[in-house]
Amino acid sequence: MLVKIKSVANVGLETTLIEVEVDVASQGFPGFNIVGLASKAVEEARERVKTAITNSGFDFPPKRITVNLAPADIPKDGAAYDLPIAVGILAASEQCPEKSTQGSIFYGELSLDGSLRHTRGVLLVGLFAKDNAIYVPIESANEAAVVENITVYPVRNLQELVDHFQDIKKIEPLKHVEIQELVVDANFEVDLAEVAGQEQAKRALTIAAAGGHNLLMFGPPGTGKTMLAKAMAGILPPLSSQEALEVTRIYSVAGMLDSGESLVRRRPYRHPHHGVSPAGMVGGGSNPLPGEVSLSHLGVLFLDEMAEFPRSVLESLRQPMEDGTVSIVRAAAHVSYPASFTLLAAVNPCPCGYLGHPRRECKCTDRMIRKYRSRISGPILDRIDLHVHVPAVEVEKLSTENPNSKTQNSKEIRDLVIGSRKIQEIRFIGEKIYTNSQMGNRHVKKYCKLDPDAERILRLALEKFDLSARSYFRLIKVARTIADLEASENILTNHMAEALQYRQQI
Fold this sequence. Notes:
With 506 residues, the protein is α/β, with parallel strands linked by helices. It contains 22 helices and 18 strands. It has a 5-stranded parallel sheet. A 4-stranded mixed sheet has the order 1-2-4-3. It has a 3-stranded parallel sheet with strand order 5-8-9, sandwiched between helices. β8 (133-137), α6 (141-144) and β9 form a beta-alpha-beta unit. α2 packs across α3, α9 runs parallel beside α18 (410-427) and α9 (199-211) crosses α21. The longest helix is centred in the last third of the chain and has 18 residues, at 410-427.
């Protein structure tokens, strides 16, 4: 008997319908074969499915079983085909009503006892299913509950599923969950008010958070660069519904959502070690999975001690920083992941870190300093919008009882950032971008109107500092964000002047 069960294949963030054809032959020697460009993980489903069916109290037919995953030219990977294969065998052997399985999508990994395990990529299944019903593991079902106009059945085990189809005991579908109900505000792990001094760096951090701009902090050790970076998470605005869905898609396909979790609730904040490989940074593998740049999408990628990262890793950031996407090409697959992140980097001025320190002597030679700084190439530095010096803190500012301190706390700054982001949200309706940093050249010409004096200052700066065309447009985008922080419709002289002061490079 031949039965066809629907499932899906996730290649990157693209989802394709897969028809799982199961034939239980009435003649021939017993056997179990899976065809259709299946990976090693899919081929191993034979033993998992056989044992799961037996341990669930069903009979595994001692006949020739052939499973075809169609279309055969699409690579299939992972253990998510366990459930559709098992359902197909049960239906083909008449232990489960075939009619009840038609029109629905099945997706999930089986344990040997017949229960279903947490399976990555369930959100993508939900987004693909649209008006159809999907049967997925109960531990992953909440991912799909945020999708509208689908019916999500959370399945514990095979026995429960068969009872559902035989009308013995129905599985209650999950109720739709509004995304915005799940999104939470940023948490203040480090409050900006806790960072002594560094007012210019705090201002640069505010601009970076408001417009999604890349920021490089350079200065000696112990001046608060890492604390400032940690405080960044606390001033970022909450995710919108669309943004939360975008980020969750990436974490779902990467298998990084916790069991039972529905959504990525906060903006990502990734802090990779400098030993990370290029594949770990941009993504890779035979079935390419997202790297750090994609896991940081619509959030922050923090590179502490940036000069210590391998040159190949830093150079791999060029294309994602410019385009907001990363393309991974492999023999079996060509996938693209979004990678519109805010790069936050910290670097010392020299190998020992004390070049220019008022109280500590630098022991580095000129050659050592040049070699150290050359680890970060000019094209990478040109893609960083804000460069800010974080100097050694004066002793007076370290006092916790400084009566003259007027530093804003993270909540006050976040409110300012949220106000700026709302202006940008209204500005970019229908543009498929969220922040000023994501603007292309045509957006800059359309939305960034410069005051005549501001334009004159910009032209003088271009001539004096010999800035590139990329720097020209990035300066305008930073000035646009500064103007948004002041709710100014046009970019004025003071906005452009402040943007220019952040172009100093290490």
